[in-house]
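Look at one record.

>
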Amino acid sequence: MDEGLRKEVEKGFKEVFSYIKAILEEELSSIQPDRLEDGAKIVVEQEDLYEDWIDKIDSAPLPELEKIEQIQHSDGIHLKIIYSLTVDEAKHIRKIKIKSNGKVDVYNYITTERKINGVNFKIKIEYDTYGNLIFTLEKED
């Protein structure tokens, strides 16, 4: 990927993530620590994020090809392709699944990590078609 394009993509991602990070911090500050014992799912309505998510996450070209995997299924070969962009404390991941019948599924999400009350959590951030920002917290072992 051209260095100029990469910097533009990183800048857009950082802008969106800084906004999302502020929302995440606000939500984490209001949650009871004992509710996080086994992880949690937090859903926040954020319709105003829609255009930025589409422009800077869903349609952004990603520079790193992490994996191409062929998976044999009973109906034929399926492909799984993973692209990513890592900046500072977050990673943008795009998973593309291509089924043998030609159906293509694309998933975009962001991962980050936080230490909450001395416990490490992996946080997956998604945005659904209804305008909801979804934070899924999983305790790391």
About this structure: The chain has one domain: 3-68+86-91+107-139.
